[in-house]
Amino acid sequence: MTLTAENTTRRITTGGLELRYHEAGSGAPLVLLHGSGPGVSGWANFGANLPVLAERFRCLIVDQPGFGASGRPPVYERNYLRISADAVLGLLDDLHLERVHLLGNSMGGAVATLLALEHPDRVDRLVLMAPGGVGVNVLGPEPSEGITRLLEFSAAPTRERLLPWLRAMVSDPATLTEELIETRSAAASDPAAIAALRDAYATFADPALAEPVPLWARLRGLRAETQILWGRDDRVTPVEAALFPARQIPNADLRVFARCGHWVQIERKSAFERAVVDFLTAGL
Question: What is the pTM of this model?
Answer without folding.
Answer: 0.97
